[in-house]
Amino acid sequence: MSVAAVRTVTLTVNGTERTARTEVRTLLSDFLRNALGLTGTHVGCEEGICGSCTVLLEGVPVRACLMLAVQAEGARVETVEGLAQNGELTGLQSAMRDEHGLQCGFCTPGILMSLTAAEREGLSEEETTGQVLAGHRCRCTGYAGIRAAVARRRKESEATP
Amino acid sequence: MGQGPGQAGPADTRERCRPVKPPVFEYMAPRTVEETVRVLGAAETAGGAVPLAGGQSLMPLLNRRRVRPSLLVDLNRVADLDTLIVGERTVRIGALTRLRTLEAHGPLRTALPVLHDTVRLVAHPQVRSRATLGGSLCHADPAAELPTLALALGARLRLASAGGARTETADEFFAAGGTSRLPGELLTEVEFPVPEGFRFHFEEIPRHAHGGFPLVGVCVGVRRDAAGTVTHARIAAAGAADHPLRLTEAERALTGRQLGAPDGVARDVLDAATAQASPPSDLHGSGAFRTALLRTALRRAVTTLNGQETA
């Protein structure tokens, strides 16, 4: 079988087209971090449990550790680096800071990506703090701060849509 | 996790700190079913071709190097596998259809509400976004929801290979550990009969509030006559054996009964279920504990069905 084990991958990350050569076995999470220098995507368990590496693929939250970089060829990927614009935090990021939704911050990038997608999809608060947050392991906060951030963000966005 | 020189600890520490990355393999992403089965068939004779669907079970195995394929055949660009047809008598779902798609599909929810409800029990949204029906069935984890659902609903699985195609019932597909899929074969489509006059319910006892395989799950379907007597029953369980388990004895015991028999569910129905079960023991619970949970889940499922009108 004459298949090269190295490929060139081109994808759009946070609105910018990026290209890099990579082994076919490279995980998307490692590709983002090592080939593209986007170390905001954190790598925890690498078996899909912890959620630290969650990114948005075509707007949908996925585990970057459970995908190969070559599978993202031609795709639109969003990482935590794409959230704040010109140094200004998104409403969710501000709410996480104001409500102490993080301590060590390791899980935070993944959580922010999932919550961003949930907000765009208009999921209910119950769905967000239940189903969505269940896909993330936070060993610091006990989730109280994160839930408070979700609630605060919801209240603020209702006040100023 | 870095393990630089000079950091080497005792052997067990080294084992735990081993890099969590896939082994070296070749990679192909065919566009059609024909091309896929040709590649799978050709590579199978050489050994070691593995199809990659949503990757939510296979990628962790690759990362841990529990699976070392020579060739990874990525199905994610085969559009013909991503289909969903809701007919009057059957629902046909392409093997690559993602759980997120199933969850959001209105006509499917109307035709097979239990499939919608059960998909919502699987893992969490960040996994359902990639996970596929076919991947879950082929991985055939004994504690997973969808193989159990396929058994209870009497699904039929379409397998293609370079030599042709064949259809297996879920009973045949999950008869023992693993599946009856042969090397070089590709699961292309799953057909669920729309069970006329039945009501189904999937009840599970999870390890956490959401996500992860349950400790035990049970899917119960009943058809009742006008007097409320069960004329047909379908029961399957997850986490009750080393493979997804159809509980035929409990089906027989439930048939001819009223669901709301004096103390909820007749004891012999529960006894029939546990007699057929041989749940494993692991760090999350002993086999005896899981057996008790199976009885609880079955009782809850039947109680839920009893609270619903006959279809």
From TrEMBL, chain A:
Keywords for the protein's UniProt record, in alphabetical order: 2Fe-2S, Iron, Iron-sulfur, Metal-binding, Oxidoreductase
Record has Ribosomal protein as a keyword: no
Organism: Streptomyces iconiensis
One Pfam entry name: Fer2_2
Entry-linked PROSITE patterns: 2FE2S_FER_1, 2FE2S_FER_2
All copies of domain 2Fe-2S ferredoxin-type, residue ranges: 7-83
Protein name as annotated: (2Fe-2S)-binding protein
